[in-house]
Amino acid sequence: FEKDLKDKKVLHFGCADWPYTEEKILNKVLLHQRLEKIARDLYGVDFSKEGIELMKKNGIKNLFIGDIYFLHEDKNFSDKQVDVIVASEIFEHLTNPGLALDSIKKYILKTNPDCEVIFTVPNYHNFWHNLIFGLRYKESVHYDHKFYFSYRTFRTLIETYSFEVDDFYFVTYGRGLA
Hints:
This protein has 178 residues and is α/β, with parallel strands linked by helices. Helix content is 33%, strand content 13%.
């Protein structure tokens, strides 16, 4: 994200990565910690009160408990104009991703029509992931995921809510495949 966020005002949704917040803070791999080093101003929003409290206890600032479905109505942000919204690895957890996209769109139109959004979702068609778990005859499903997206399904979803796709990338991350 570095080139897209350098010296910008950023709103990061799902910043706590609950229930893994404490482990990720200790290992210094919490995405929000990394974004702090890049962004000019960084605001974090998460639905998890526990995650936000842990982050605050660890010295992370500008954090808010919030609901992505009501971003456009949130009084914490109604006066904040951001350059970029990061919504990373959250859409697969939502029961209504369309409602969340609608709320983000309303917020952008209300505060900064030039705001960019960076979405990330797990790739349902990840070759290595499917190969490893397929060979084990297991389905690897996160306990809290409601959806899995392919490139086409996620792109169709965000375009339905009038977002334009400027760039698209596949990435692999993690400690390994095993």
